[in-house]
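Worked problem 6 (solution included).
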Amino acid sequence: MLAQTFHLPYGRAHLTFRLPDSIQTDLAVSQPAVPQTDPAAAIRQALAAPIGSPPLADLARPGQRVCIAFTDITRACPDQLLVPALLAELEKAGVSDTDITLLCAVGMHRPSTRQEKIAKLGAAVVDRYRVSDHEPQNPDALVDLGATRSGVPILLNRAAIEADLLLSTGIVEPHQYAGYSGGRKTVAIGAAGEALIAHTHGPAFLDHPATRLGQIAGNPFHAAISEAARRAGLAFILNVILDDERRLLRVAAGEPESAFLDLVAFARSVYEVPIDRQYDLAIGGVGYPKDTNLYQASRAPSYLFFAPTPVVRPGGFFIIPARCQEGAGAGVGEQRFLQAMRAAVDVPSILSDARRNGYPPGGQRAFVLAKVLEQNQVIIVASEHPDLVSDCKMIPAATPDEALAIAVEALGPDLRALVVPHALLTLPVLRG
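Solution. The predicted structure is:
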């Protein structure tokens, strides 16, 4: 499909890319699907007819301690709709407000601010219920449940483990390590201790050929977090699928495995898009909230690289517009990513050091990005911190035209390009 002008997400707005006629351009967008006209009603319906589970109002009992793990601000999950719906079901069951903990599953990201909690849950919920952030590095806030069958240490949030009923929200979309996110991941990673995150994000897992976007079968990351969530006692999930404009396409509730697999089947029909070739150049959009920092925005080239077949041929370019107003990111993991990228002499040394010595959580983003940079160059467009882009072994460009000029100068004018406006929500799959 030949089209030369594209508007890609940039923060809460867009940047315009105008490609010269010499570049043969294809567009990859998610498959069309009809959004729910009444999201709140769709959520109520899902809760009334859960998959593989009794309704939540039948699972809950007065006097029970209940924990709801919800996603942090880096996820576009509509928790402002999901969490109140779960709370309404708990109220029907007679669960007291004081017995409910709402746990922001930040993983190794920074703690959430009060305003971010309000944005995720609504002021009425934040004012009424106990809302806390997970603390992955606080031993007193964690419970040791031993190890998975593959040897992954299971350290999880104490409020989640000690709850009589553990619930979670989530968004099902392509994920570089888990194959598809959602399901058990909100608890098993978002509420995990540093040791669990370090093990599942280590070189042995990320070098495994089955740790790829869209792949669940045989995926060691997926297997580990599934087992961790079962050991935690995760009883019930409420998960969604969104389209490129963050509109609700599908919602499912119920037993974690059954509800997750139901959503994955639908997600594949939306997110997986066939392509006929590898390209010289891919332009991938991110947008808010993922492009608030470089750690999150760098997922775009790695998602396209770790598709079942890399989207760009060796020697080609990824161009990613990303505002990155928070720099590399303020969390522990984000700062470790920046430190690893800055400290390395070159890209091969990042890989060799990681495979030899391992890395703490956050370092996996440096390892994964280095695997991309080993074969391709990445240009970040219109970052508010271009110096950090350079520190992270990528190329800063002030404008789309400057980025395209860099690629054309390196590869020549007669290129094949793929434009992926929503690179984290579109999985290009090479036919055959």
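Discussion: The first helix runs from residue 39 to 48.
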